Amino acid sequence: MSAHHQPPNSPVLVSFPDKDALQTNLAAFISKAQKDSIDKKGRFTIALSGGSIPTILRGLIPDNQIKWNHWQVFYVDERVVPLDHPDSNHRACAENLFSQVPIPPANIHTIDPTLLDDLEELSDSYEKKLIHEFAQKDAARFPVFDLILLGMGPDGHTASLFPGHELLAEEDRWVAYIDDSPKPPPKRITFTFPVINHAARVVFVAAGKEKVDMISNVLDHPEKGLPAARVKPVFPGQLYWFVDDAAAAKVDYPRTPFKL
């Protein structure tokens, strides 16, 4: 996919008639991304968010081209709650996808539920999981995920990176904690922008008319500096926006026809 009349490495905006079409085409995009990665290096590293992402992932279930045993799954952010808690991003992803596909449990990297009382230790232990997966293999300053899936909140936040928060400026840590999230639950851990922006592919997923003003703010007015607008993958990484027409109704930003 390439954007028309946009500087190199600009976000690619693809819009679909409805959420079902978005889900189907996103599943095809993920399937191709995992095939490319596995063919090249024998593994596929993906990081998932909460929000609407877990339900959208259901589109992957019928795809028999997916080599689940080569997936390594991480969470872009996670609420500091037990893994079976209703607020847990892991629980939502497990219920919507992992419980229905043959992915090895050892390949799904959750927070350590024994460390919920110590945010520093919890975020350090999650960072160590990233180091174990990436540092020996890639020797990069930051992990390079094959794909990161992001949502966007009504305030323009993404992951657990909120407007005006000091974590927006974090440049060293891979995983950081927050104990004052403006939306509950207050305690979370999150990837930092350097990790998100070193991925090979980052995809924002947004559907519904309630997203329409914020998408326009992020894509048409990046100078406002909203957290979602700070997602700018380092070349050759590429940022995609997968949206439905209702969410994209006010966007001036050019759309790109979807093709794999």
Structure explained in plain terms:
The chain is an alpha/beta fold. The protein has one domain (12-244): Rossmann fold, CATH 3.40.50. It contains six helices and nine strands. The strands form two sheets. It has a six-stranded parallel sheet, with helices on one face. Strands 4-7-6 form a three-stranded antiparallel sheet. Helix 6 links the parallel strand 8 (201-206) and strand 9 (238-244). The longest helix has 23 residues, at 19-41. The chain is globular. It starts with 11 loop residues before the first strand and ends in a 16-residue tail after the last strand. GO terms for molecular function: 6-phosphogluconolactonase activity. Belongs to the glucosamine/galactosamine-6-phosphate isomerase family. 6-phosphogluconolactonase subfamily.
Fold blueprint:
Elements: E1 12-16, H1 19-41, E2 44-48, H2 53-56, E3 71-75, E4 77-79, H3 89-96, H4 119-138, E5 147-150, E6 175-178, E7 188-191, H5 193-197, E8 201-206, H6 212-220, E9 238-244
State the main characteristics.
three-stranded antiparallel beta sheet; alpha/beta; 6 helices; 27% helix; 260 residues; six-stranded parallel beta sheet; Rossmann fold
Task: Give the overall silhouette.
Answer: globular
Number of helical elements: 6
Question: Got a strand count?
Answer: 9
Which quaternary structure do these chains form?
Answer: single chain
The low-confidence parts are: none
What class, by secondary structure content?
Answer: alpha/beta
Strand content: 15-25%
Helical amount: 25-40%
